[in-house]
Design brief:
Elements (H helix, E strand, L loop, with lengths): L8 E5 L4 E8 L2 E4 L2 E8 L2 E4 L4 E8 L1 E4 L2 E14 L4 E13 L4 E8 L16
Amino acid sequence: MSSSTERPLNAFLGRGATYQGDLSFEGRVRVDGHFQGRIYSDEMLEIGVDGRVEGEIDAEEVILAGRVDGRMRVRGVLRVVSSGRINGQVEAAAMVTEPGAILCAEVRVGDVLMLGGEQGEPAAR
C-alpha cells in the first residue's frame, strides 16, 4: 500500500451499513457499506471490496476495491484494484488499474478535467 493509506482514518461506513445523502469531508474516509448520494473531498476516499457508491464522487484521490455506479471526478490519482468495478463516467488526472478491474464507463484521463470550465476544456494551469 502507498503511504497515502497510512494516514489516519477520519470516518468509516462499515460493511452492512447504508447511508443516503451528501458527504463532505477532510482527511481519509473509507466506505465498506452502501452509500447513495454525493461525496466531496479535497483528500482521500477509499471504497473497500464490500463498498458500493451510487451517485457522484468528487475527490482528490480514490482507491476503489468495491463498486461505483455513477460519476467520478478525481483530481489526483484514481486507483482501481483487481476487485474494483465502475459503471458510469470517470474523469481523472491519472488512473491506475490492476488486471481484473472492470470498467463499464466513459473514461477521460489526463488534462481534461472540469475545473470551472465546460466539459472538454483543458484544466486551468
